[in-house]
Amino acid sequence: MVVVFGAFAFAVVRYRARDGRVPRPTREHNAVEIAIALGLAAIVAVLVTVTFSADAREAKVTGRPAFRVNAVAFKWGWQFTYPGLPGVVDRTTDDGRPPVLHVPAAAEVAVRLTTRDTTHAFWIPELRYKRDAWPDDPQTFALSFPEGDHFSGHCAQYCGLRHADMVFSVQALGRDAFASWIARARGRRPGP
Description:
three-stranded mixed β-sheet; single chain; Immunoglobulin-like
């Protein structure tokens, strides 16, 4: 700020109007101005292309993901349901216990993200992944989680007074552990 205001003050004092002083005529530099405008347009075009192609890759879900999850954000919690497991729901409890998202490790997991009320964000810092949830605009994306890891998840979009309470965890389970979890979730013993 000091540099900008200093330069402005210098220009006002140094080049002020004085008696007997005639301003020097300026020349237009159309070729330079056009080159600068084309250069800026090329930079913008490259950035827009890279951004949209990265977003398309991120949102791409194969025709047959290994597992599907519905993630619903609401003030001030999360609910995870599994379309292949009717009745299995994990959500933020009334006492504030965060839900756990169970996923198979090293497999493509298709997540359908929605929100019931305002703008929220599905953010897993360890994966460097964040996706905004907009009202009336479901988002679908694919993620893959390393085996045996637990990840923390947060809402990264300020959504009100209890925004800090919007947390969840992700448990990436190996094949056998995931089959056991499915069996427990369905209320029966795991098969062979």
